[in-house]
Amino acid sequence: MTSAFFRGPEAGGSLTPDAIAIAAEEMGVKKASYDTLTLLGLAVLAGAFIGLGAMFATTTVAGADGIMSYGLTRLLAGLSFSLGLILVLIGGAQLFTGDMLMVMAWASRRIATRRMVRVWVLVWLGNLVGAVVIAGLVFFSGQYTFGNNAIGIAAMHYAEAKSALPVVEAFSLGILCNILVCLAVWLALAGRTVADRILAIVFPVTAFVAAGFEHCVANMYYLSLGLMIRYGAPESYWTATGHAPGEIPLSGVLTNLAVVTAGNWVGGALLVGGVYWFIYRRPGKPHH
């Protein structure tokens, strides 16, 4: 895809920022043309990929409290979670948060509002299915009991904390998260090789996880797994862990997903896609 756009020799053959804007716009047009089954299939894959990244992150830091500093623990979680977006962008899938860049094609009047919203709705639903499937596999496989139950304890902690987040905090953390996720997608579009793209992805994704920002698709996994453990784990599990089942109210789960989704939309569609469209693609912009 990237070979169709101008590359700057000063950037080592990578796309220049104005060419990234063209590539992002073309990508939005292509996404809008997908039929429903293709879109849903790719969306389910993306939800599963993000779930795998979240599973990896939870596993790597499970039991680390008191052993490593908070910052190092979060850094390790972020590096591990990067797997999810690498699988999405290199393997090929449709992720709701990354699809916020479609606003660039819409702003240039190359896709209709209806088609853009159709993509966002179908992809969100497909992402949910994929994330829940991975959460279910982690639960039914018993993987959450590994590490002397440390993985399940960490998963429950995440779910409890997310379901209790105040609305303003969740919304703001969602904005910050998708600024970084969409910047990861933006930078990956500039890459010439798979290695280029992976390197472009890792730092922004690691930053958002390390900082504790909120990603709606990751939360689909974390909250689903937390609910499964909370209501499905046997009594022997709670006896072995020495923990009582935590509170993960369904109202808190639904509120978190709705509010974080809205924050992700603002961060990605307005503050990345919208800003870059205005800078590089607005009508009447002088060409240099």
From TrEMBL:
Protein name according to UniProt: Formate/nitrite transporter family protein
Pfam family, one: Form_Nir_trans
Entries under InterPro entries matching the protein: Aquaporin-like, For/NO2_transpt, For/NO2_transpt_CS
Subcellular location as annotated: Membrane
Keywords attached to this entry: Membrane, Transmembrane, Transmembrane helix
GO cellular component: plasma membrane
Family indicated by similarity: Belongs to the FNT transporter (TC 1.A.16) family.
Membrane-spanning ranges: 37-57, 77-107, 119-140, 170-191, 198-222, 257-279
Family matches, as Gene3D superfamilies: Glycerol uptake facilitator protein
Membrane topology reported for the UniProt record: Multi-pass membrane protein
Main location (coarse class): membrane
